[in-house]
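Revision sheet: structure tokens.
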Amino acid sequence: MNTLSQLLFIVFLIFISKSFAQEQQEILIVGDMHQLPGIVKRAYRPTVKKILKYKPELIMAEYSKTGDTAAMGEWNSKFKEAYLKKKASYTYNNEKIKQLQTTPNKNLDSIAFRQLQAYYLSIGDQGNHRMYGYFARHGVTKKFKPYGNQNPDLTFQLMRQLELKSVYGVDSHAGYQGYWPAWQRALKSGTKEGKKAFKKAMRKDSWGNIFAGLSWSLGRYMNKPKTLESYYRINSLRYKGFSGEDYDLQIKKWDDRNVNMAKNILDVLANNDVKRSVLIVGAGHAKAVSEELKRLSPNLKVIMYNDLKNHIK
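Predicted:
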């Protein structure tokens, strides 16, 4: 084999290896209920244990992207205000921050966590700002006080036990303003049959969450295809008996948000050399985001939580 042929063969091998690595990139999608009823506030613990067996290298969650004020939107307006205020007045030692970012969390104290929290607020990183505030209050031991909320009880526990340093926000409220008022108006103007179907779905899911939580099977229940479909329909009022301008508006805004989330997820994966990642997201998003990821990136392996047992070695 001459020199040129050898060179071409090497280039070909490099191309194939990169393509193969891309094909192997995976994302586990975990649908959750943002806040659990108090009676089952410990119910996220089995979900944490199951995800740990997957050994993810990166965690993404339903936080706005760093510094993206448009993505912060109306529902994160308080954080947005605090971020802009901090950004205008805060100065930090770059070397000190890099040191803290590369030091294992188990070797940091509450003062160091507060320093990281302040830094992440100054750059508009909502997820890490909240996580390091939590670590400053509770430390990074395995013991924790359950809140019944997916952030401290699921996301932050995974970050603790996996000893990961950064959680990645992938949510987007850009153009989302007006969704909730339009959704409420559409609900009020629906037919009697439409409202009945909606209330039935809400009642079923509320009791389903409680029973699943009491039986330590919340993660499995929340991520059943039927449950994910139900939350998807609830969040966009996809029932017979709803129509009109407000109905169309809230559906568009909901669908656009899921598309933007999928694009943000792909950006994170493109900028991080990891094989296994996890997305923790409201159950109403899980179906739409998974479908959008498959459409935008056919080479990405999308794994739903209830199929996880087939992917744990």
